[in-house]
Amino acid sequence: MPDDDGLLASLRYLFADIIGDEDEGPPVLPDACPAHLGPAVSGAIHLMIEYQSTSYAQLYVDRLNRFVGRRGVDDAMLADIAQLLAQRMAYEDPIRIAQLKLGEVNAAGGLTARSADDIKKFRLDELIDALPAVIADPILGMLDWFGWRHRRVSIRFSANSRFSVRRLRIEAGLKRWRLFSIRYAKERVWVERWLHMIDRSLTKQPAAATAVIQTATMISGYGDRYRQGIADWHAIIDGLAKPTFDGVLALPDLAAAITEARAAIMPDPRQAALKRKIAEIRARVPQAAS
């Protein structure tokens, strides 16, 4: 299970967003953060503020601070955690795509009449997941009734007219509801579990910590690629990492096992090749006595 303190921190900063507690300035860097990582971490903090809020940036800092000065975490590992944590916390949803497109308008100083439209394909449930759960749940129920939950739709993100820019502003403004959304709830749980696995690796098998950190690169974007990455990540963690940390699987080189399993990943929703590889790796080592 993810660290309870981590989940409480997530909920605390969600509450800060609810009540609009944004009086304080941007979060400061952790005291023990290496100086040469300062610019990258500062950039991530500003990204979190742009993406969501000051309190969200503070959540980023608090999550990162768990590993600052931690035994076994060198500067390269800390840099990877900082970068990958920022990428996952600024996950790509329809709201973020609108934010980025609107940023093009702001950078150009006005309408960008010749800019190319961004046409993104989503499943209906993926769009609805960006809404607060209290709104999304009944809509998803209705989509299930019609059999449309997985129906694909194309959404145009355009900045070529005043109307389209106004629509982008409305869509980007939905970020105030993001932390209530179904998607955010899933992302919060995933981030905390990833951090928890890093923590367990540092304790149980330090040589595998870098490989565990890098598993975050399996997940990106949205749509089928995102769903496949999430499913593959859980398969590797549940099949190899967690059993090793729990003492159920006597795997001497978890890092090599993770690398081998990742090499077997195919764009297959059934995960046939990956599951075979995980079973093959597990079959090579004796299970610990219960």
UniProtKB/TrEMBL annotation:
Residues 40-238 form the DUF6537 domain. It comes from the Bacteria. InterPro entries: DUF6537. It holds the Pfam family DUF6537. This is DUF6537 domain-containing protein. It comes from Bradyrhizobium ivorense.
